[in-house]
Design brief:
Blueprint: E1 2-7, E2 9-11, E3 20-26, E4 33-40, E5 46-49, H1 64-77, E6 86-91, H2 102-117, H3 124-139, H4 147-152, E7 155-161, E8 164-169, E9 176-181, H5 188-193, H6 201-220, H7 223-228, H8 236-239, H9 246-255, E10 260-263, E11 270-274, H10 277-290, E12 298-304, E13 310-313
Parallel strand pairs: 5-6
Antiparallel strand pairs: 1-4, 1-13, 2-3, 3-7, 3-12, 4-6, 7-8, 9-11, 9-12, 10-11
Length: 314
């Protein structure tokens, strides 16, 4: 049996709409991501467990694991014949529509687990292509800002070139990332519909400048410069209307030395970046008390996960 784990991720990282993503790892050692078991079986089957299992469709053919298996086996059958059948168990630990790469985590864990189970026939770029395709079936468009960091780990820039899907960037290891899920659901497709179809020339230039400066600052180790451009001019002005309490949360984070504050992916999860644990703890406590809307919500102090997804034979 193979057990695969894929961490939560934050897409966009404010300044990099659809082009930046980062894998997250709680500093307390808890797992923040989905797990998938793949084991030999006489026939294919799917079982779903975990805290958010009840949020998924009851029909196995509507489960993303079913589509992952179908797609993977189809690709692998082109290379190998007589495949040993398998069954899969999904431990759904991430909430759906949370802005934490929930679907990406399931896709990455499923495909990484299948690839390991069948002897790693596909390389990293081939895997990323498959992951992007499967993620696109859920969100309505192929994009890699969650699957790439979830799979590769760290902070990732989407290159989307034929021979290079994603590029891992340098990171500031001492930064703390407070991520708070409010408990409500915001679907990626809904969050995209609220955005304008065209972006002004001014905002386009700002977006390009910020992304270029940010990547430069990472490579030169300039933390202050990197933090200064972590502001979303593309999506946040529109999407924050979907997030109750967003402006108040941003104000508190800014008043308590957060380097940056923004929407994780499509929301409703928000994130604050801090360069000291004390500020991160204060912001984490406040978000836990004021931003969370129901019992499904949670808040974690994280750092970036350098490893990404893992697959272990049990």
């Amino acid at each position: 049996m193979v057990r695969a784990y894929a961490p939560a991720s934050t897409g966009n990282v404010s300044l990099g709409f659809d082009l930046l993503g980062a894998a997250l790892k709680p500093i307390d050692g808890s797992l923040l991501g989905d797990e998938v078991e793949v084991y030999a079986s006489e026939q294919f089957d799917i079982e779903v467990k975990g805290h958010f299992a009840h949020k998924l469709p009851s029909d196995p053919k509507q489960n993303i694991l079913y589509h992952c298996h179908q797609h993977f086996v189809s690709k692998l059958s082109e290379r190998q014949k007589g495949l040993v059948p398998c069954a899969m168990v999904l431990y759904k630990n991430l909430p759906i529509g949370s802005g934490l790469g929930s679907s990406a985590s399931s896709v990455v864990a499923a495909l990484h687990g299948l690839n390991s189970f069948y002897g790693d026939p596909f390389n990293a770029d081939e895997m990323l292509l498959m992951m992007g395709e499967l993620e696109g079936q859920i969100s309505g468009s192929v994009h890699y800002d969650n699957v790439a960091p979830c799979y590769l780990g760290g902070l990732v820039l989407m290159a989307e070139q034929a021979q290079r899907i994603a590029i891992q960037l340098p990171v500031f290891e001492e930064w703390y990332w407070v991520v708070c899920y409010s408990g409500i659901k915001v679907s990626t497709s809904e969050a995209r519909k609220i955005l304008p179809q065209q972006v002004s020339l001014k905002n386009t230039l700002t977006f390009g400048r910020q992304l270029g400066v940010f990547v430069h600052a990472l490579h030169t180790g300039d933390r202050q410069l990197a933090a200064s451009v972590m502001h979303d001019v593309i999506a946040e002005p529109y999407r924050k209307a979907l997030l109750p309490g967003f402006d108040e949360a941003r104000q508190f984070a800014g008043d308590n030395q957060a380097l940056a504050f923004g929407i994780s992916g499509s929301g409703p999860t928000v994130f604050a970046v801090c360069d000291n644990l004390e500020s991160a703890q204060r912001i984490n406590q406040w978000l836990s008390e004021h931003y969370i809307q129901n019992n499904d919500g949670f808040s974690h102090i994280c750092q970036l996960d350098p490893q990404g997804s893992t697959a272990t034979r049990v």
